């Protein structure tokens, strides 16, 4: 008679695995697309609802905080109520709240709808990756994650351009309404094709007591941390008493959570999985990948809009070709995974990414559209060769019964890295810009011959338009000051790209800490995996 472990190992879904992969990828595309579109439409939302720009940012912050809270606990919820049921609840909640966001008449109602939408969106990615890991055998997971990764990179690539077109030609409400048909189709396909494997069904029947303390600690701790990271730069970090209290509260809650969960027999988040060398290293690399992926995606549009005067739609057009290049390279990385050492792929991916980021330090105030587009494409060439192998190595040496926890922790690490990277880079830009302003201002002295020539040339140009001498002289000084601010900001962006490049290059050897995947390791029981 076959053992439970044997049944788990040979289980295959009833439907074609690729049909299941396309089904879950559809919801991924919807969620990621909505996030990137909402960023572009923020000024339109603020104007329509009579809110300030700072108040409107809560539309983004509320979503990020609620989704971050759900990410680490989604594995536990999946085991508790069943992964298919949890996944379908998330799709339905995200779709319904998209409708509520679209019809929201006031900013408070929109923020409440976004909080609920974030709860649904936060549970999607971990469930989808766990479904893919259980649906495909080890040797085909790379190609499955390549398909999933294509949705992750294509959606942000077309999101800003699509968002700009929708808000310019219709109104911001439609950026949420377009989710409705996608969500309904995804829900119908998920109900037909997605199913829970035996280990999920068996786990669902267990009725151990709910760890309410752990649940409260992780929800409040992650919420405080995300709020601190998102609002820190705006409030000048620890200079603001509220930020200091929130940071201290987050630290206390999360440290208490770690000690509590480590001893708990049925933890909300199985932190002991991090003792596995492969998974622990992969989580750290996911954290850094999030910092680079989200950080660079924020820096480049900011640079284009604030310094080169691009519109949001035109800045999105710079990013779009890179997204499609990544889509093609995802396929290449997926097919390469079974033929080349995955650790070598990750290392080469980090080196290529470091080189691409360093190349961006060549950006200037007169760099052309085509040049920026090409350099952005070169910057993302290595990312598929990081994303696919790491996503696959996450599950190596870990039993299938832990797939939900694995996907929850790895996605949480990547999203936390994105939040931390964006917050730290924003602060870095502001502080280094101030330093460069001081350095450049030291050259702006009345007795400086180059400075006098510069002011004189601008003054003569303005006077040639009919402006008076005194007014032209004042205008020339103002224009010189604005140019100094632009140049100091440009230098701070160069510093940021150089910093990211150096961090990534230093991480290149780390993948070789991990062991190569072996078929025997996949079926090991949990207690052997933890000591492996």
What does this structure look like?
With 532 residues, the protein is mainly α. 78% of the residues lie in helices and 0% in strands. Helix 4 runs antiparallel to helix 18 (403-441) and helix 14 packs across helix 17 (384-393). It is globular, with a radius of gyration of 25 Å.
Lay out the secondary structure.
Elements: H1 4-10, H2 17-48, H3 53-56, H4 58-81, H5 83-103, H6 107-135, H7 141-169, H8 174-177, H9 179-193, H10 198-205, H11 212-231, H12 241-263, H13 277-306, H14 312-336, H15 342-359, H16 369-380, H17 384-393, H18 403-441, H19 449-463, H20 469-507, H21 519-522, H22 526-530
Helix pairs in contact: 2-6, 2-7, 2-9, 4-5, 4-6, 4-10, 4-11, 4-18, 5-6, 5-9, 6-18, 7-14, 7-17, 11-12, 11-18, 13-14, 13-17, 13-18, 13-20, 14-16, 14-17, 15-16, 15-17, 15-20, 18-20, 19-20
Descriptive tags:
single chain; 532 residues; mainly alpha; Growth Hormone, Chain: A; 3 domains; 78% helix; 0% strand; globular; disordered N terminus
The whole-number mean of residue pLDDT values reads: 77
Indicate the low-confidence ranges by residue numbers.
Answer: 1-8, 519-532
Structural class: mainly alpha
Oligomeric nature of the chains = single chain
Helix content: over 70%
Largest sheet: none
Total number of β-strand segments?
0
Condensed summary:
It is built from 22 helices and no strands. The chain has helices at 4-10, 17-48, 53-56, 58-81, 83-103, 107-135, 141-169, 174-177, 179-193, 198-205, 212-231, 241-263, 277-306, 312-336, 342-359, 369-380, 384-393, 403-441, 449-463, 469-507, 519-522, 526-530.
